[in-house]
Amino acid sequence: MLVLSRKKGQSIMIHDNIEIVISAIEGDQVKIGIKAPSDIKIYRKELIEAIQQSNQEALSAKLDLSKLKNMMKSAEKS
Question: Which residues form the signal peptide (predicted)?
């Protein structure tokens, strides 16, 4: 991981089309602005993790439902 020090108003460039700007520093919180092309999606990490968790739970529920359907079919045959 690259760690850089920046002051308010300073920025960091990623490649030649993404700029991370330090817009404010308030106590232990840093506000950043991100300038990037509109085709680049930018998400907070905790949002991505929540979506991944939700997808895992949905997949598990689907698998459980599939098992239940198979059990019901087996019970109907007997």
Answer: none
Distance CA 43, CA 24 (A): 20
* Residue 5 tokens, joined: 């020090």
Q: Name the residue ranges covered by the structural domains of the chain.
A: 1-39, 43-78
Alpha-carbon distance 78 to 76, whole Å?
6
> To which residue do tokens 């700007």 refer?
21
Which parts of the chain register pLDDT below 50?
A: none
The candidate with the shortest Cα–Cα distance to 4, out of 32, 43, 38, 37, is: 32
Cα-Cα-Cα-Cα torsion 37, 41, 47, 52, nearest 10 degrees, comes to -160
* Residues written for the chain: 78
pTM: 0.64
Residue type, 48: I
